[in-house]
Design goal:
The chain contains 23 helices and 14 strands. It has 699 residues and is an alpha+beta fold. It has a five-stranded antiparallel sheet with strand order 6-7-8-9-10. A three-stranded antiparallel sheet has the order 5-4-11. A two-stranded antiparallel ribbon has the order 1-14. α15 (419-439) runs antiparallel to α17 and α19 (580-600) crosses α20 (612-622). The longest helix has 41 residues, at 524-564. The protein is flat.
């Protein structure tokens, strides 16, 4: 038996090695297919950071030319990122929601549980009517008959509540609870002492990556076990007390993460995410991280420990693009030091045949089928191989393209689009700097052979006197000056051309608050028109984010909770609504309607019908300003009005006193006038307060 068991284990290990070799070859194929894209991304990154290539810097230095870099791309990428995040994440609402379907499929036991109190009350009324009828007939039911009457009354009451309206009501209540649970899971950003980026922070990373490189990647839902801990007081055998953190419970919780495009290697045969068969992701882990990974469920801890013993100093080395990225930063002098004691771990999500899974020791129902699975490699060793437990989510990666490209999986971003304008404006700025240096003063030519002994032409300074030893020659033959003409105006014109070209290909300058806009942008209405026109492009980007990230990811979160959440009160027949683009359109329409409504307040016919306070709240909401902090309460408004009335009355009294004193009226007469005015003002104020109280009672 021991020999047979050892043979079986050895056979499984050999099959796992075959699968590991096969998977590693697949990864290398995906990595090679992305080589050209890596070069484009390197150019995008250096362009965003405002860096020239080493070859260009060498030429500039040898020719003593200016190396200034006008960081136009940085501004454009940051502006687009900020604009999209402002539209995708309104300050007062979410950009998604869980809603019940129009005709929800709700089980009867769920309706009974949700409407238990109402059904029981209705059943009691029905049973009371039946008992009154039996009493009139002098009939007293026995226990068995009474149980049947109660069951019949409950069934009859349930039929009254089992209606489409009630089903929709129950579904909406449960959908609201599911909405709350998912919202809490997205906002929860810490677990087991580890701080994770929130939903909004991860989405910002995805959006910025899309703007810069052309693609952003979100991953999830992934699952982690959260151990809740609490400090408790303990006493030792000597009675001394101390506080220590003790675990109080465990719970599974989904989380998400933004993945760098540099770490993702999709199926090279796919042009769109829908065509993907697999996605590889690389992880650079330290020896401690790898030891921690061996304690996670489904990981082959023995293989991980053996691999660490075989490679005590790690196996990670920089790829070509990683080396170039490291050398682009002057702080990374020794690029190899940062990969010491680090390991490269490969993670794969995608489809694989049942036979390969079976050979790797995974139990499958049918080896002829293809399964969605998760495989991890360390070198060429399979350290994890499981079937994807989350149904309906085959590959948990969500790709956000900046602009769709039918010829490549990786579309271009803003940096690649602005390659020519950025290069053009850099050339203009360098030429302007070099010309400014040359034209700042005269160029002096000196006949050094005629200089007196000891004179040095490099000691040129103001009021410098040169002595010449050659006689019989005039000064023009010994020294000449030349003025280099300034070409700044010409360069500024060319710079304006390239800036306008960049505006046409990306976000216009007025989106960043640049007021140097001619034409329609010189007026408020014209600038508003330009902003509305620029939103047309933003609507497409927001809609793409809704369709490619928000909707599928929230749907995956919904599926995870339906499958693994132990709270059955949140489960039901729902649909996912991504409201990013919808909120943008609604906000834009309201912003256009508000000025017209505010003008109606001044119309005598409409003024009594419009609620000014509510209109002011809506107007502030469109600017994402906190209305509750800006609008006064009823008590504060009343106090403010009284202060204004008091200040106005004091000003009137002071003006009247000065006028009466000019007329020479005695002081006694002035005091009498003031007393009469005060009494009249108090009576008028009392009348106003009584009228307000009467209107309040009528309302």
């Amino acid at each position: 038996m021991d020999g047979q068991s050892q043979y079986t284990t050895s056979n499984e290990e050999s099959k796992a090695e075959v699968l590991g070799t096969k998977m590693l070859e697949e990864y290398q194929e995906a990595e090679n297919a992305r080589s050209m894209t890596n070069l484009r991304w390197l150019d995008d990154l250096m362009q965003y950071r405002g860096q020239y290539t080493s070859d260009m810097l060498k030429v500039m230095k040898e020719n003593r030319k200016s190396s200034v870099y006008y960081r136009l791309t940085t501004q454009k990428v940051n502006t687009m990122t900020a604009r999209l995040m402002d539209l995708l994440f309104p300050s007062r609402t979410k950009n998604w929601s869980i809603e019940a379907t129009p005709d929800p499929d709700i089980p009867q036991d769920v309706i009974m549980h949700a409407m238990e109190a109402e059904i029981a009350a209705e059943a009691q009324q029905i049973l009371a009517g039946i008992m009154q009828q039996l009493a009139a007939e002098n009939t007293i039911p026995d226990d068995l008959a009474m149980q049947k009457l109660q069951a019949g009354a409950f069934e009859q009451a349930f039929q009254q509540f089992d209606t489409p309206t009630i089903r929709l009501r129950v579904a909406k209540d449960r959908a609201a609870e599911m909405d709350r649970v998912i919202d809490d899971q997205l906002k929860e950003a810490s677990a087991n002492g580890q701080r994770r980026p929130s939903w909004q922070q991860n989405c910002r990373s995805v959006v910025k990556s899309s703007c810069l490189y052309g693609m952003g990647v979100l991953k999830g839902p992934l699952v982690e076990k959260i151990v809740s801990k609490q400090f408790k007081l303990q006493r030792d055998e000597y009675g001394q007390s101390s506080w220590s953190e003790q675990p109080t419970g465990e719970v599974l919780r989904p989380y998400h993460e933004a993945v760098s495009v540099w770490d993702v290697f999709p199926d090279p045969a796919a042009v769109t995410p829908a065509e993907l068969r697999y996605v590889w992701q690389i992880h650079r882990m330290s020896d401690k991280d790898l030891h921690d990974l061996s304690t996670f469920p489904h990981f082959k801890s023995a293989r991980i420990r053996d691999y660490i013993r075989e490679h005590p100093e790690g196996d990670a080395s920089l790829n070509t693009w990683e080396t170039m990225m490291a050398h682009s930063n002057e702080e990374n002098i020794n690029s190899h030091a940062r990969v010491k004691n680090r390991y490269r771990v490969y993670e794969r999500w995608g489809f694989i045949s049942g036979q390969d899974l079976f050979d790797a020791g995974v139990e499958v129902e049918d080896t002829s089928k293809v399964y969605s699975s998760n495989i991890w490699l360390l070198g060429d060793k399979v350290i994890k191989c499981v079937i994807n437990p989350l149904e309906g989510v085959d590959i948990p990666y969500y790709f956000y393209p900046f602009q769709k490209d039918e010829t490549s999986f990786w579309p271009e971003g803003i940096a690649s689009t602005l390659r020519c304008p950025q290069s053009g404006i850099n050339s203009v700025v360098r030429a302007m700097q070099d010309n400014a240096a040359l034209s700042s003063g005269p160029i002096i030519g000196i006949n050094v052979t005629a200089l007196d002994e000891g004179e040095n032409v490099h000691d040129m300074a103001a009021r410098k006197m040169f002595l010449f030893s050659r006689s019989g020659q005039n000064l023009q033959e010994l020294m000449q000056t030349t003025i280099v003409p300034s070409a700044i105006e010409h360069n500024l014109t060319l710079s304006k051309f390239w800036q306008e070209a960049a505006d046409e290909q990306s976000t216009p300058r007025f989106n960043t608050g640049d007021g140097r806009i001619s034409g329609a942008g010189e007026t408020a209405s014209g600038l508003s028109m330009l902003m509305g026109a620029s939103n047309i492009m933003l609507k497409d980007h927001v809609k793409d984010f809704d369709d490619n990230v928000v909707s599928p990811f929230i749907r995956a979160m919904f599926r995870w909770n339906m499958q693994f959440n132990e709270n059955n009160d949140i489960k039901g027949d729902y649909e996912i609504v991504a409201s990013g683009s919808q909120s943008l359109i609604t906000k834009e329409v309201r912003a256009q309607q508000l000025p017209m409504l505010i003008q109606m307040l001044n119309h005598p016919k409409f003024e009594p019908r419009i609620k000014a306070d509510q209109l002011l709240e809506v107007a502030l909401e469109q600017t994402d300003l906190p209305a509750d902090r800006l609008i006064r309460t009823d008590e504060e408004t009343k106090e403010y009005e009284q202060q204004q009335m008091l200040a106005q009355a004091q000003a009137q009294v002071q003006a009247m006193i000065m006028e009466l004193e000019k007329r020479g009226m005695p002081e006694e007469m002035i005091q009498m006038k003031l007393l009469m005015l005060t009494q009249a003002t108090m009576q008028q104020q009392q009348a106003v307060e009584q009228q307000q109280q009467a209107e309040g009672m009528q309302q």
